[in-house]
Amino acid sequence: MTKKPRGIRIGRIDFANVWPLFYYFPFSAFGTEIEVTQQVPTGLNRAMAKGEIDIGPISSFAYGENFEEYMIFPHMSVSAFSHVHSLLLFHKKPLEELDNTTVMLPTTSATTVNLLKIILNKFYNLQPNYVYAEPDLETMMKEADAALLIGDHAIKASWQDMGYMVTDLGAEWTRLTGHWMSFAICVIRKQAVEQQPELVKRIYEGFLESKRKSLEDLTALVQDARTLHGGTEAYWEHYFKNLCYDFGPKQWEGLQLYYRYAAELGFLDREVKLHIWEDNSVVRVTE
């Protein structure tokens, strides 16, 4: 008797910035063909690397660590050209004065932590003392000169004026390089593509349809974000409109520059190639 293939396991990041990819995803249409797990980015990164998740939006840096095992869905990412509003460094003194100071990093991210290190090292020639901590700004800043927050933690902290300088890392990256930055990309393990190509294609189409419906009318997303996190309608409307959920040549170029810098500084141990999934399941490697 032929063994029935197991369901494809989808990972979901527990942050508002990926809502458009999931909000209208037709979960019920897939029944037992899929399983969904919700985690913070670092948890999802680990699960994907271990093969416990087959598809999901993971930190871009995590793709760089294991890219030989993955393909990337085109037309899906969490990217920005300039301000992101949810990747924020709070600091007591200007960036250029942070050398040899204590900078607190959240335990919830990989891409943004390394983006901060790239910016401070490569562009400001700084070597702070980095310390990981739970993402609570008040606690972090008791013993630090700067603290990085991402996602919903950063958004809520930005609504409180605690007297700190605030640097949006998306804006800083674009100012310094002139490029886009992709913070999360939607990745598939190659094994899942090889074993269940048609199911992978249907899942991809479900994500694209969810993205299209979400961005076509943001009303429901905005109301849910206000209910869950607070804030104004105008804030959330601007937040979702400002982020880019595409992943094409402009985003590829910016991400490859990020990978190049990460490798130069020793954060990645090899050159990263972008393996883009296509409808016919042919891998295209961008150089």
Please give a structural write-up.
The structure is a single chain. The chain is an alpha/beta fold and 287 residues long. It folds into two domains: 8-79 and 181-286, 3-Layer(aba) Sandwich (D-Maltodextrin-Binding Protein, domain 2), CATH 3.40.190.10; 87-177, Periplasmic binding protein-like II (D-Maltodextrin-Binding Protein, domain 2), CATH 3.40.190. The protein has helices spanning 19-22, 27-30, 41-50, 60-65, 111-123, 137-141, 151-158, 169-177, 190-195, 197-216, 219-229, 233-242, 249-264, and strands spanning 8-13, 34-39, 55-59, 70-80, 87-91, 102-106, 129-133, 146-150, 165-168, 181-189, 274-276, 284-286. The protein has a five-stranded mixed beta sheet with strand order 7-6-8-5-9. Its EC number is 4.2.1.151. This is Chorismate dehydratase. Pfam families: VitK2_biosynth (PF02621).
Quick synopsis:
Catalyzes the dehydration of chorismate into 3-[(1-carboxyvinyl)oxy]benzoate, a step in the biosynthesis of menaquinone (MK, vitamin K2). This protein is an alpha/beta fold.
The CATH architecture assignment of the largest domain turns out to be 3-Layer(aba) Sandwich
CATH first level of the largest domain: which class? Alpha Beta
**The CATH fourth-level homologous superfamily of the largest domain:** Periplasmic binding protein-like II
Residue share in β-strands: 15-25%
Defining key terms:
2 domains, MqnA, alpha/beta, 287 residues, 23% strand, lyase, D-Maltodextrin-Binding Protein, domain 2, Chorismate dehydratase
